[in-house]
């Protein structure tokens, strides 16, 4: 049998079962002891030992299962049956699966049979007259009901505990082998048991428990155990189990009103476990739906609303879970939440952004779902619409929340509302303008949400699929004229007046309009569709064409209002294009990706300016961020590639024609990538050839050039593309179409450079002579315009060096022919002398344009000759490497046999003798000699280009001539820079000339070209340029913005690639402390200072530099007393990325900045440092940080206390000095006062006397109600120093509350009279308070509490000195500390009022 110490679980059961041992039941009027059940439970038999496992198995199979299965369901009340069942329950964990199954199945089946009997018992009780048998049956049913519930719930708890322990145990191969093959499956039984318990709570238990609600112990037992199951995440994954648990809690909380405890448990679970949030929301929503009672949801909302906002700041995870719960609940019960939203709105003022995010989400759900139906009375609809309008206003206001998370969440909510068509047209443009403004938000997540909102608004806009401003303006103008015809005498209302917003939908008399913004012109839907705006846009050119008739005056007015709103929306989106261009240059990948998506959507809806912005997207293909490149590539494919190859070719051709040089480079990169991937098919290539060859009707010369440009780009990854139309390239590229479109010749030259090796050979064999003649004619001829000739000649010379077998011979002929076309060669010496003499007569016989072309040709030929020499050297080196590799492979093939005695032996001997190295040196020597001969020439003399180089140098030195012909100077300086890049000697000789021109030339084009050339020279001849480094930096101060921009690009390229060392300058982390000191003295605004320092600190990335800055900034605190400087230093410290070493240095430097911890702003910055450090700190460091935090707080409080003490001491010192000074002048004052008083008139004296008595007596009467609290003030408001009796010191602000507000006290009416010697009676006022007395009351508060007077209780004369006016008053006081305050209060009223009167100095003596 069971022993007493084994009945631990029965104690819990004793709380829910009727105890027959010591309790009684009322049957009629008699108390009958219940001795049938619980006595068996608590009975103890000391003779019988515990059952062993084998005996227990036999007992289960032969006894318990038989009793529970074959006997009636109430057999469990029998002592022996219950005792054995409980014994099995106590050993449940050790039972074999078959025994568990039999026990659980028996209990479950009996309980399922018991539930219908409860319903039948209800019917029997209603039909029988005798209550005694019925009560017995009720008692039996109730006990059996509780017993089955107890056993089943505890079995579930035990089984789940066993499951959790098994899951936590490490499973090994041995344990897997020990598991039985046919083990008992618990999961189906768990769901059936819990659903049975849920069914038991959903039946009518009123007769069973004697009331509509079961007893509290029973409900407590169930709720406690069910909520413990909610803590198991694995258990909640079973839908049947989860539904049963939710039904049980819903029944207990809602049906049986077990509300307070259930709400507390729900709130605990939500705060602690994030996985229960959705299930709790399902349970609450299910309770409201099943029982039509939302009390549980309302109670939870009120509980959340009552929680202090500060609690959510401390518990961030709990705040997040609560927020999710609110959003889920608003999604399921929108109408119920809308009626209780008022208790949650105050949390918008809390500091927890997570709660604010949740409330924003709740408002979004309510706006979308809680106000959809239109049923109900007009008054209720009016209230609901006003509620909706208030919610929308809150959402608009929260777009400017201080937290970026909340701002982002609000914009996301607006996106959801737009997607669900819950935003009226009246609010549409307001939301769009807010989203457009948030594009410049400092937070990337807010910008992302703003972009997504604009994308969603474009996708779901109610104005049509085309949003061109011209279309709206034309259509709007037509319908405005039509409206003027219909209503000539009434002025047209604006769109704001014509569009129905949610607020305008409510009339003053309570009537409600239809507020669906997308049914704006509901009456004319039959005749006016969304496609009308497209038709109107297509017909704007026909100004006199009639407009469709949309109906009567009201319908026309509504259409005009809608068109005005659409025009405003289109302009709003179009105005965001500059911001979108800036976002494409953002360092945040999300900004770039979402901006690209936004521009794609804008192009789809034909927003003005979107096409130009999309072209600026192309350079992003060079981004190192893979996501950005993929976004650009996907956008390019979506926008420009179509299923129809002709359309794709037309798009590509137009794009190439309208692109600049940078866009063409990006387009070439992406086209080559798409060709290699196969995204540009052969059919698209064929369509491009058709455009180039004018096979497509309507093709222009520009489209032909664009098609050839795209084909050249495709040839970069697939050179064979151009081989099929070589003749067409020559005929069309250099034929008559080249005169129509001059750039076509340049494009044809590029195409010839992209030919494959096989195509080049084929091309030379078929059309070589003709092509070179055409190229020579292009270079030396004048049939191309001057602005295009330079670009065409550049590519033509490059094509000659690319495809000609001996390009130097053809290039020499070009130079000679160009020279002869400029001037007669026989007069070259005379020209040279004229140039040397600085005469400008040369240009009277030689055209500047021709000379500029000649200089361009010769310099470009020289540059291409250098490139050609280098390519030949690389080709020889490549052949040499290939030969060595072939010899090595041959040696490896014969390594096991007899090696050939020829080549291999020679190579090995050459390697041993070092002849291979000498061959490389010889090749380098030949290459250097060839490069030098371009300019300097051979030893016998200068060559053709060398002669021109000396002429060019002298020409460029003739500044007076060059300044007259700026085009010639540009061409000459460009040629000079090219020669300098080629030859080191020529560079050294002309460096001073180059820097002189780059500083003094009036043309910014010349200065920009020279600046760029300096970068090339620094790369090629760094030693020559090193002494001129300062002059290169001087270009950063050039007056032209374009020159400064090029200088920045050149210098940054050189520095970042280690081609130029930064000298004479320290890194940012060394300069930062000095910059801090300079900026602190510049009177900058706080925001400007923070922006500058945040940018500078953001450029420091190394940990060592950060640690060094910590020490440097801490040293800056030394000797600084200015509050602004202390705040600036602490702000800079808070912006650093602290490491473990950095935190240690900060702690070690405590003594240096200890004096600065007095300021609240400084301590706030240190707290920010600590909060960030805790996130990365290890346990040991975290402990040190916490100690450091306590030390900071303690020091801050001590400094504050010291400041207060010092201030009070100074006040006391000033007062003591004033008293001594007053005593010194007292006698003089009395004597002078007597004479001055004699001069005052009697009327004036009587007036002042009445005034004093009036104020003093009224003040005493008002303070009468405070006497009790003032008498015992030694223990309530003041600290009395025993050694200094009478000196009072206010200890805190609570002393203020001891006094009744004087403004309120002044309302008490009193009537006091005093007689003057002259018979004049003064009566205190009654009724409303005197304004003068209100001023006096304020003076009392200021004087009494902010500037306390320290008075000795033993002194007889006390002097009060006004710090604002040279006046004094002597008062006779004999009182204790308590009474002194009573007297002093009206005295301060008196003094303050006399100050207001502006009394002269001598009249103060009238009142002593």
Automatic annotation (TrEMBL):
One of its GO terms (biological process) is meiotic chromosome condensation. Residues 1005-1064 form the Condensin complex subunit 1 C-terminal domain. Keywords: Cell cycle, Cell division, Chromosome, DNA condensation, Mitosis, Nucleus. PANTHER family: CONDENSIN, CONDENSIN COMPLEX SUBUNIT 1. Residues 898-907 have a biased composition (Polar residues). Its main location: nucleus. The keyword Cell division applies. One of its GO terms (molecular function) is histone binding. Regulatory subunit of the condensin complex, a complex required for conversion of interphase chromatin into mitotic-like condense chromosomes. The condensin complex probably introduces positive supercoils into relaxed DNA in the presence of type I topoisomerases and converts nicked DNA into positive knotted forms in the presence of type II topoisomerases. InterPro entries: ARM-like, ARM-type_fold, CND1/NCAPD3, Cnd1_C, Cohesin_HEAT, Condensin_cplx_su1, Condensin_cplx_su1_N. One of its GO terms (cellular component) is condensin complex. Residues 98-260 form the Condensin complex subunit 1 N-terminal domain. Residues 887-907, 1312-1334 are annotated as: Disordered. It comes from the Eukaryota. The lineage of its organism: Eukaryota, Viridiplantae, Streptophyta, Embryophyta, Tracheophyta. Belongs to the CND1 (condensin subunit 1) family. It is found in: Chromosome; Nucleus. This is Condensin-1 complex subunit CAP-D2. It holds the Pfam family Cohesin_HEAT. The keyword rRNA-binding does not apply.
């Amino acid at each position: 049998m069971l022993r007493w110490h084994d009945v631990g679980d029965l104690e819990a059961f004793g709380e829910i079962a009727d105890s027959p041992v010591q309790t009684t039941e009322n049957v009629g009027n008699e108390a009958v002891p219940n001795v049938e059940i619980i006595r068996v439970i608590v009975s103890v038999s000391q003779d019988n030992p515990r059952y062993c496992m084998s005996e227990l198995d036999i007992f289960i199979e032969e006894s318990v299962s038989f009793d529970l299965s074959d006997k009636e369901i109430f057999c469990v009340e029998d002592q022996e049956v219950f005792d054995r069942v409980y014994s099995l329950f106590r050993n449940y964990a050790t039972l074999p699966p078959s025994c568990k199954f039999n026990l659980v199945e028996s209990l479950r089946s009996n309980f399922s049979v018991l539930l219908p009997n409860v319903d039948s018992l209800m019917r029997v009780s209603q039909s029988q007259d005798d209550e005694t048998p019925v009560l017995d049956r009720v008692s039996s049913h109730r006990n059996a009901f509780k017993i089955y519930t107890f056993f089943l719930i505890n079995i579930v708890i035990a089984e789940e505990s066993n499951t959790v322990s098994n899951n936590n145990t490490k499973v090994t191969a041995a344990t897997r082998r020990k598991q039985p093959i046919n083990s008992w499956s618990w999961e189906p039984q768990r769901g059936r048991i819990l659903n049975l318990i849920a069914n038991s709570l959903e039946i009518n238990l009123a007769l069973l428990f004697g009331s509509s609600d079961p007893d509290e112990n029973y409900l407590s037992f169930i709720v406690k155990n069910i909520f413990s199951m909610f803590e198991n995440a694995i258990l909640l994954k079973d839908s049947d189990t989860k539904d049963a648990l939710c039904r049980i809690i819903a029944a207990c909380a809602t049906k049986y009103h077990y509300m307070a405890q259930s709400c507390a448990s729900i709130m605990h679970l939500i705060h602690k476990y994030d996985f229960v949030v959705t299930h709790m929301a399902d349970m609450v929503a299910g309770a409201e739906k099943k029982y039509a009672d939302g009390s549980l949801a309302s109670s939870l909302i009120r509980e959340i609303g009552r929680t202090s906002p500060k609690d959510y700041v401390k518990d961030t995870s709990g705040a997040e879970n609560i927020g999710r719960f609110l959003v889920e609940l608003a999604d399921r019960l929108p109408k119920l939440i809308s009626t209780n939203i008022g208790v949650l709105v105050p949390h918008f003022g809390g500091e927890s952004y997570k709660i604010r995010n949740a409330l924003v989400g709740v408002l979004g759900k309510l706006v979308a779902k809680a106000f959809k139906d239109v049923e109900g009375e007009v008054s209720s609809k009016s209230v609901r619409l006003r509620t909706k309008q208030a919610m929308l206003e809150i959402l608009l206001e929260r777009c400017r929340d201080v937290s970026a998370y909340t701002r982002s969440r609000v914009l996301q909510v607006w996106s959801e509302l737009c997607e669900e068509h819950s935003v009226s047209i009246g609010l549409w443009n307001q939301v769009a303008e807010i989203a457009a403004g948030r594009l410049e938000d400092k937070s990337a997540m807010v910008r992302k949400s703003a972009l997504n909102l604009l994308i969603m608004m474009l996708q779901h806009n109610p104005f049509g699929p085309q949003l061109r401003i011209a279309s709206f303006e034309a259509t709007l103008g037509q319908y405005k004229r039509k409206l003027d015809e219909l209503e000539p005498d009434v002025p047209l209302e604006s769109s704001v007046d014509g569009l129905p917003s949610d607020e305008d939908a409510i009339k003053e008399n309570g009537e409600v309009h239809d507020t669906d913004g997308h049914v704006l012109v509901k009456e004319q839907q039959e005749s006016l569709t969304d496609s009308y705006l497209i038709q109107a846009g297509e017909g704007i050119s026909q100004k006199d064409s009639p407009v469709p008739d949309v109906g009567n005056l009201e319908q026309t007015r509504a259409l005009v209002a809608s068109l005005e709103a659409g025009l405003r929306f289109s302009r709003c989106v179009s105005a965001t294009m500059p911001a979108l261009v800036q976002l494409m240059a953002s360092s945040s990948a999300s900004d770039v990706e979402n901006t690209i998506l936004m521009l794609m959507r804008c192009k789809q809806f034909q927003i003005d300016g979107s096409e130009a912005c999309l072209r600026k997207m192309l350079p992003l293909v060079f981004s190192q961020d893979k996501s950005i490149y993929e976004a650009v590539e996907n956008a390019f494919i979506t926008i420009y590639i179509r299923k129809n190859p002709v359309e794709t070719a037309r798009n590509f051709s137009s794009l190439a024609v309208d692109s600049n040089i940078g866009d063409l480079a990006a387009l070439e990169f992406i086209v080559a990538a798409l060709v290699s991937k196969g995204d540009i098919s052969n059919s698209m290539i064929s369509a491009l050839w058709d455009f180039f060859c004018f096979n497509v009707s309507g093709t222009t010369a520009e489209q032909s050039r664009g098609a050839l440009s795209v084909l050249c780009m495709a040839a970069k990854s697939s050179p064979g593309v151009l081989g099929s139309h070589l003749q067409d390239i020559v005929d069309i590229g250099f034929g008559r179409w080249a005169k129509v479109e001059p750039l076509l010749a340049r494009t044809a030259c590029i195409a010839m450079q992209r030919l494959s090796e096989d195509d080049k050979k084929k091309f030379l064999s078929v059309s070589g002579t003709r092509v070179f003649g055409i190229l020579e004619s292009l270079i030396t001829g004048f049939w191309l315009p001057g602005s295009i000739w330079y670009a065409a000649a550049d590519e033509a010379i490059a094509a000659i060096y690319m495809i000609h077998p001996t390009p130097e011979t053809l290039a020499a002929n070009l130079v000679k022919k160009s020279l002869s076309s400029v001037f007669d060669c026989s007069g070259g010496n005379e020209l040279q002398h004229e140039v040397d003499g600085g005469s400008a007569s040369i240009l009277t016989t030689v055209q500047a344009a021709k000379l500029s072309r000649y200089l361009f040709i010769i310099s470009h030929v020289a540059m291409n000759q250098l490139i050609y020499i280098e390519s030949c050297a690389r080709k020889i080196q490549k052949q040499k490497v290939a030969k060595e590799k072939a010899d090595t492979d041959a040696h490896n093939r014969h390594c096991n046999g007899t090696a050939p005695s020829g080549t291999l032996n020679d190579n090995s001997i050459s390697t041993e003798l070092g002849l291979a190295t000498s061959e490389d040196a010889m090749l380098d020597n030949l290459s250097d000699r060839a490069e030098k001969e371009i300019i300097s020439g051979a030893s016998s003399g200068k060559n053709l280009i060398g002669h021109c180089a000396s002429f060019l140098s002298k020409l460029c030195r003739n500044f007076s001539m060059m300044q007259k012909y700026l085009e010639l100077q540009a061409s000459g300086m460009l040629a000079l820079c090219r020669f300098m890049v080629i030859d080191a000697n020529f560079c050294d000789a002309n460096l001073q000339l180059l820097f002189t021109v780059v500083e003094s030339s009036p043309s910014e084009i010349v200065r920009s070209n020279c600046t760029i050339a300096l970068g090339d020279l620094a790369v090629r001849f760094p030693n020559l340029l090193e002494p001129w480094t300062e002059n290169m930096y001087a270009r950063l101060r050039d007056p032209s913005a374009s020159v400064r921009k090029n200088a920045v690009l050149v210098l940054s390229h050189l520095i970042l690639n280690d081609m130029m060392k930064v000298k004479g300058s320290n890194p940012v982390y060394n300069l930062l402390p000095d910059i801090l000191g300079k900026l602190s003295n510049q009177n900058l605004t706080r925001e400007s200072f923070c922006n500058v320092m945040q940018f500078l600190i953001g450029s420091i990335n190394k940990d060592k530099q950060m640690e060094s800055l910590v020490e440097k900034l801490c040293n800056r605190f030394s000797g600084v007393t200015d509050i602004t400087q202390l705040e600036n230093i602490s702000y800079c410290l808070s912006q650093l990325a602290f490491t473990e070493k950095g935190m240690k240095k900060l702690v070690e430097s405590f003594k240096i900045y200890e004096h600065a911890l007095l300021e609240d702003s400084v301590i706030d910055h240190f707290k920010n440092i600590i909060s960030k450090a805790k996130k990365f700190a290890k346990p040991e460091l975290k402990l040190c940080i916490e100690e450091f935090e306590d030390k900071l707080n303690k020091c801050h409080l001590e400094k504050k206390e010291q400041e207060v003490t010092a201030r009070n001491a100074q006040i006391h010192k000033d007062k003591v000095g004033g008293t001594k000074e007053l005593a010194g002048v007292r006698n003089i004052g009395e004597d002078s006062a007597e004479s001055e008083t004699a001069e005052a008139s009697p009327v004036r004296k009587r007036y002042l006397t009445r005034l004093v008595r009036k104020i003093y007596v009224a003040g005493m009467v008002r303070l009468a109600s405070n006497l009790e609290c003032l008498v015992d003030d030694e223990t309530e408001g003041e600290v009395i120093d025993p050694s200094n009796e009478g000196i009072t010191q206010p200890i805190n602000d609570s002393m203020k509350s001891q006094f009744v507000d004087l403004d309120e006290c002044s309302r008490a009416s009193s009537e006091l009279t005093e007689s003057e010697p002259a018979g004049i009676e003064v009566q205190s006022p009654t009724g409303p308070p005197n304004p003068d007395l209100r001023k006096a009351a304020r003076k009392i508060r200021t004087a009494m509490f902010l500037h306390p007077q320290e008075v000795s209780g033993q002194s007889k004369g006390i002097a009060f000195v006004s710090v604002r006016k040279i006046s004094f008053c002597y008062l006779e006081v004999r009182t204790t500390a308590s009474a002194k305050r009573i007297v002093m209060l009206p005295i301060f009223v008196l003094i303050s009022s006399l100050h207001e009167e502006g009394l002269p100095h001598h009249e103060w003596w009238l009142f002593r």
